[in-house]
Design brief:
Elements: H1 2-17, H2 25-33, H3 38-54, H4 58-72, H5 76-89, H6 94-106, H7 110-123, H8 128-140, H9 144-157, H10 164-176
Helix pairs in contact: 1-3, 2-3, 4-5, 4-6, 5-6, 6-7, 6-8, 7-8, 8-9, 9-10
Length: 180
C-alpha cells in the first residue's frame, strides 16, 4: 500500500517538472538537466523524444515510425532502409540520423553507426540518445574509455537517466580500473 501511495505521489509531482506541450526543446532540456530523479527525467525524455519526432515532416515521421517498428521487430536492415529514406528527405533532422545509427549498430555496422551519430550530434549537440548509442557502440568494440566519455556526455545532459549512475560506475571500473 505504501508503494502505491509513493507511486501516486510521484505521478502527481511529475507535471511540476514536465513542461507544457508548447514548451520549447531548450526549456525541456534545461528541465531534464535539473530533474530531481529518474521518474521525472523519464517523463521529460519522452516529451523530448516527441518533440524531436515532431520536427519531422509528415512523410519523414511515417518513415521514422516504420523504422522504429522494424527495430522493435529485430529487423535492423529494414529499419536502416526507412531511416536512410528519412535522412534523404530531411537531412537536417538529428533524430533521423540518431535512429539510423541505432539501426546500423544493430546490423553490426558500427562504422556507419558512428558516422550517423557524428551527423546527429553536428545537428544537435544535446541529442542525448545519440550519446547513449555511441557509448554502447564503443563498449561493443572494447573501447571502454570511449564508452565512458560518451556516457559522461550523456549524463551532462540527462543526469537522472535510469541506470545512469550504475552504468557510469561500471564504465569507470572498466576504463580506469577504479573501484567506485
Amino acid at each position: 500500500m505504501a508503494m502505491r501511495a509513493l507511486a501516486l505521489l510521484l505521478l502527481l509531482a511529475l507535471p511540476a517538472y514536465a513542461q507544457s506541450p508548447d514548451a520549447g526543446l531548450p526549456e525541456m532540456l534545461a528541465q531534464l538537466k535539473a530533474a530531481p530523479g529518474p521518474e521525472a527525467a523519464a517523463a521529460l525524455e519522452q516529451k523530448i523524444a516527441a518533440a524531436w519526432l515532431g520536427e519531422a515532416t509528415p512523410a519523414v515521421r511515417l518513415l521514422l515510425e516504420s523504422g522504429m517498428r522494424a527495430l522493435d521487430a529485430h529487423a535492423p536492415t529494414e529499419a536502416a532502409d526507412d531511416f536512410d529514406a528519412a535522412t534523404t528527405l530531411q537531412p537536417t533532422l538529428a533524430e533521423a540520423w540518431s535512429e539510423q545509427a541505432l539501426a546500423h549498430f544493430h546490423a553490426d555496422d558500427s562504422a556507419a553507426a558512428i558516422a550517423d551519430i557524428a551527423r546527429a550530434l553536428t545537428l544537435d549537440p544535446q541529442h542525448f540518445t545519440a550519446f547513449e548509442t555511441l557509448s554502447y557502440i564503443a563498449q561493443s568494440r572494447g573501447d571502454w574509455v570511449g564508452a565512458l566519455a560518451a556516457w559522461q556526455k550523456l549524463l551532462s545532459i540527462d543526469p537522472q537517466i535510469a541506470g545512469g549512475a550504475e552504468r557510469l560506475k561500471m564504465l569507470e571500473r572498466r576504463a580506469l580500473g577504479q573501484n567506485t
